[in-house]
Task: structure prediction
Amino acid sequence: MKSQSVRGFAKQALTAFFLTGAALAVQAQTTLTFGGSDAIGSILDKQNISFTKCVNDRGANRLKVNFIQGEQLGTDMQVIEQMMQGSVQIYGDVLDWYANWVKDFSILAWGFTFRDADHMQKFIDGPVYVAMAEKLRKEQGLRILAAAPTQPRILFSKKPVSSLADLNGVKMRVPEIKTYLMLWETLGTKPSRLAWGEIYLGLKTGVVEAAEGPISSAYSAKFHEAVKHVTRTDHLMSSAHITINEKSYAALPADQQKLLSDCAKETVVATRKVAQQDTDDTLKKMTAEGATVSTVDKAPIQQKAKDAVLKMEKDGVWSSGLWEQIQKM
Result:
């Protein structure tokens, strides 16, 4: 009887050992899917690769990130919706997309709202942006881990653009963000929505005559090869961020939450640091590859955008007074 009891105890202990080992194995296999929608090789794509490496290197085989590049999982809107549903846990791109759920993010897509990267950083570090991010977290279940300004957005067109008048009637590609459409309508173009991955062909075939985007992303997507005129409108300051599904984040132990936050902050800050040099280098590449890079008198374009601010606020595109509040920063 004693021998059977010892054997029974040993069996229970062994079973417990294997169950514990199985639990640890499950823990070691925690993998978060990271959906990217930016052009492969762009500054944001490189950022997302760096974030993935940071987490995987420090995750001690307990936490891993599986980064899926380009638009393999769909457009930005589709990936964000997947993140909301929880089938994708992480997404990294520009902040503007969240205007589709929290209206004050629309201000990021309105022309000449920010003077430069430092101005946008003050906004991101301030209470207005923090409140916007918290609204996104509470209402849509998306936690922004880190964000920063990056590069200006510029114009690519079939015909040269040397003045505001040259924009009149141009078939202009805009993303699925209402404010972009309203901005380019205000500037006199005829906006048309196309997914990012469709822009090159759209420009090449004449479905659209112009498009805009962050310098690095547009270069990676070869806009400058589809059309040869590149204009430094610098109408918007682009951004970078890394966001996670709130439920997925909350389910992780505190040390893994900190790891994700730390890696996000480090990689987004690094992206901002390299943005200016990347801008200069990319413009040189475009020129070397046959594009004509030029500047434009921005004052009339800027004034046109400014004149429409009150209408935007009256129509409820973003909160009343938000634009002026940002200007005073």
About this structure: The radius of gyration is 23 Å. The longest helix spans residues 254-288.
